[in-house]
Write a structure and sequence with these properties.
Distance between the termini: 57 Å
Strand content: under 5%
Number of domains: 1
Number of helices: 3
Structural class: mainly alpha
Helix content: over 70%
Radius of gyration: 17 Å
Number of strands: 0
Length: 101
């Protein structure tokens, strides 16, 4: 087990908080664009939030001195966080189409 220096606490705390906040911003913008409360031109801003979230996750992984396997899991989580809203929207849209016909 790696012991962390107290000096990296702020980095860990801020990067973990940014992962949560930026992820929420990404999913919020994606959802608002899909329900047409925002213009589709706002979607690149959502993806920009995801990029910053991925960077924050990388900083968090580096700050806690994660092992290579854990780094791969974190990368997979970020890819999943990018793709899963698209999959969920696709499934919801198909379900509505099937129930309306």
């Amino acid at each position: 087990m790696h012991y962390l220096e107290p000096s990296v606490f702020l980095t860990i705390f801020l990067s973990a908080a940014l992962v949560i906040l930026l992820g929420t911003a990404y999913v919020s913008i994606y959802t608002l664009v899909k329900i047409r409360w925002l213009r589709p031109q706002m979607m690149p801003l959502g993806y920009l939030f995801w990029v910053f979230q991925a960077i924050s996750m990388y900083v968090l992984g580096a700050a806690v001195k994660s092992e290579p396997f854990t780094q791969k899991v974190l990368f997979g989580a970020m890819v999943g966080y990018l793709i899963i809203p698209h999959v969920i929207y696709f499934l919801v849209q198909r379900t509505h189409e099937a129930c309306e016909t």
